[in-house]
Amino acid sequence: xxxxxxxIRPRRMRKDEFSRxxxxxxxxxxxxxxxxxxxxxxxQRTEEVxxxxxxxxxxxxxxxxxxxxxxxxxxxxxxxxxVVPQEFKSLDAKEAYNPNxxxxxxxxxxxxxxxxxxxxxDVALDPYTTHGQDGxxxxxxxxxxxxxxxxxxxxxxxxxxxxxxxxxxxxMMDGRIGAIRDALEEAGYIYTRILAYSAKYASAFYGPxxxxxGSSASLGKGNKYNYQMDPANSxxxxxxxxxxxxxxxDMVMVKPGMPxxxxxxxxxxxxxxxxxxxxxxGEYAMLKAAAQNGWLxxxxxxxxxxxxxxxxxxxxxxxxxxxxxARWLKEV
Length: 332
Known about the structure:
By secondary structure, the chain is of the alpha/beta class. It contains 12 helices and 10 strands.
């Protein structure tokens, strides 16, 4: 070395646990977690999701037990995704706003049992359409925007009436946030929050989720390129987020998560609004498969991934690992 003494030695602060803790920039807690759950019809029913080891579809009564455990672990909120029977699917997706449908009944049961637990509902039509698209289609199969928004508004109102704390439009139709916000205000649901999937990409990482909710078979070889975002685009995401905030979104979502941390960072820096990321089914499945094969330390890798979200600027993460993470954090 050219100098006998080094004035700056960054490793000094990394030498001991106490000093590493004192300089730690980001901390993961249970407050950062939202747990996505799949609910199905019936009683005392569970079904394993083969492409997502450890994840189950659950009937409402079973889900209430899961919700109790989430409350005990300190997880702030659940996000509900329905498994809709084939006989309730249609071209007009009318089951999406049935007040006696699976989602409204789930919301009511959860809020009655656990009023302090946040309940987030998915506002999108793909579980309810025979073709698996997130909206109504014309004769050529093209997803119609304004006609779809009309149905999404009915769906959001249905969920708000059931007691949902947050409605989360994940469809990527133009103008749907403003339409839903106006409808909620007019109906008196002024405290119902909107979590807008503002930057939702047409990603290959969604496969296991579509298996879980049963839309994969309906979609077949179709795709969602004409409404979900091109994975190549970054500036477009900023435009989409700006529009949703202007239309009345309280929170925004980037989906998928880890392959799009640059988007999370840009959104948080540009707007400073509550920003969330979805650690999607494909990301979960990859980590789970590698861990089951003994290729990765599951706990260490998952916690590192979550810190990556926090470091990028996410205020919270939707992850199927939420309950595991909450347990691991209690061990620390």
